[in-house]
């Protein structure tokens, strides 16, 4: 597969533009300056107006590397009193659950777990997945995890219930931008670092709504008990505003420092995700990436490694070596996800294989 000469994004990446073999992401890239003083101003401003003496902020805790490290830094460096919050939409991984319990106990942080009926959430997700597999389109793959978007709304609810003004999220950093999710839906949205989805251009949000609506009408299987929840997921993602502060907009991601902290706190890694533990907390990740890899030849790991190259964290050669391992199917994780949604795994593999025959690349 032909790839960018600087990063490793492939030529069939949506809306990718090449000049002399170099993609427009690499040509236009400018490293972001991390300003710790701005974050300190946010914290000091919050201290003045904070109504709750027990908590300085509410933090989203997934049990993954980014949130485990971030919570540690808030407690140890910034001396904050955070209240941790997790929304379990039915697919929080076992290792992630253990990390949540472990780090909250170690740091003496109170933790709130919110969920609806796990059985119902898994059932509704199974309806979405089975509808997707009836007419497998790359632009529709994100519907697999649409029900987890309620966490955006519930975060505000939990903050209000506890009289907390400052909400801090550890949801990724620059390396986790994935424009191809939108690109396969024919939406060309340039995502800046940790950009809130509700700030996307109104024209692009309209295009996205039209794309989803068209595919729903084309595939009647989407008209099921999950339909209303899918509408709400779109609203929570792209319409409802929030004032969450992204931690990694103010704190640099340093792999060496992070690994030292994770080792110190005894961070538990998922055997299912092998060497790359990114997004190990979401059981459906391996399922989605299996579809992407087989239908378009790359996954979100190719984008992840490309961002690392631009940041100067790894070389292009190293990225190519790493992504070979990253993109190997994680069969154990896929099997777990399929069992949770009562999906015949052999039938899933067969559908993906048959979809290759009718594949139209971007």
Give a structural overview.
This protein is of the alpha/beta class and 362 residues long. The protein contains 15 helices and seven strands. The chain has helices at 24-27, 36-49, 65-76, 94-107, 118-134, 150-161, 180-183, 202-218, 227-238, 255-264, 285-296, 300-311, 316-326, 331-340, 345-357; strands at residues 18-19, 22-23, 57-60, 82-88, 111-115, 167-169, 245-246. It has a five-stranded parallel β-sheet with strand order 5-4-3-6-7, with helices on both faces. It has a two-stranded antiparallel sheet with strand order 1-2. Helix 3 packs parallel to helix 4 and helix 12 (300-311) runs antiparallel to helix 13. The mean pLDDT is 91.
Q: What's the multimeric state?
A: single chain
Counting helices, strands and paired strands, the structural category is: alpha/beta
3D shape: globular
Can you count the beta strands? Answer: 7
Helix percent band: 40-55%
Mean pLDDT: 91
**Sequence stretches where pLDDT stays below 50 over 5 or more residues:** none
Q: What's the N-to-C terminus distance?
A: 14 Å
How would you sum up this structure in a few lines?
This protein is α/β, with parallel strands linked by helices and 362 residues long. The chain contains 15 helices and 7 strands. The strands form 2 sheets. The protein has a 5-stranded parallel β-sheet, with helices on both faces. It has a two-stranded antiparallel ribbon with strand order 1-2.
